[in-house]
Amino acid sequence: MKRMKRNTLLTIGLAAALAATTGCASQSGSAIQEEKVNVVTSFFPLYDFARTIGGEYVNAINMIPAGVEPHDWTPKSQDMANITKAQVFAYQGAGFEGWTDDVLGGIDTKGLVIVEASRGIELMKASENAHAEEAHAEEEHAREEEHADEHAHEHEEEHADEHAAEQADEHAAGDGHNHGDFDPHTWLSPRSAMQMASNLLEGLKQADPAHAAEYERNFEALKAELAALDKAYTDRLSQVVNKEMVVSHQAFGYLARDYGLVQMPIMGLTPDGEPTAHDLKKISDFVKEHDVRFIFTEELVSDKLAKTLANDLGVETLPLHPLEGLTEAERDAGETYISLMEKNLEQLAKALK
Q: Region Disordered: what ranges (predicted)?
């Protein structure tokens, strides 16, 4: 469904949705608990951070059900009813959720602490992220041509930048769900995740100042884990021979930026966009040029195209988790942000060694 149509339907149905005050559990399996600080979160990393920082004083509710890919998901009646009853609503921002303006604009937010988790993070432009591999190629070309005429070289770089921007706009325009000007996938870098967790901490302290000391203590423990994770990524990925990776969709830009990698996405900022013949040619050339041995896949989206590409190019596939949502098996196993990111690091180290 197109975004405009989906948002229109959401606005029309908002009044009816807010009338849903049944006591049944939300799609995440949690319901409002009157004796606790209720934190409704828009997707898994925020849910995990909220329950970790909040501890015994917080009831965290994840709006996205297990097994659901969140990019084109919209809230249902119970989800919106939960927001109206919660003390804190945390969402990613940066264009990740296409429905927040409609929902928050249609309810009384007085008394509701709203946390935009990506606030304070240096966001990457979608065009910058989508074609980071072109910039990478330009750097290599510049080194090879360092003795060429300076004016001609500057002209060539300007032309390449303009071409990359045009290509990025075309890719975004053809995507079924456009995140806007920025890449919202900040959580896939532990460094950015620290700021997201800090934003949640401030929201909890504002909603429940009586337990601010406990929230601070829990946050410091989480921050130490994230710092250790950041160090592990820095140490392991600085030692890999290959820096280039092919990923299912354009979700790993912040990880690539912070740890010296280059991503080549099969699809755009959402996993429902279809690559063009030109995109597939670029991917094929990229794999051959950089001796890429694995193409990364995801759990919640079809891996058919990635596996077809891998078979055609004579390479293998490996899963790399975008952490946007969990499978039912991952939920039941008690996976956390930390545990999934640790598994991602092992996959990256294996693929890039």
A: 129-188
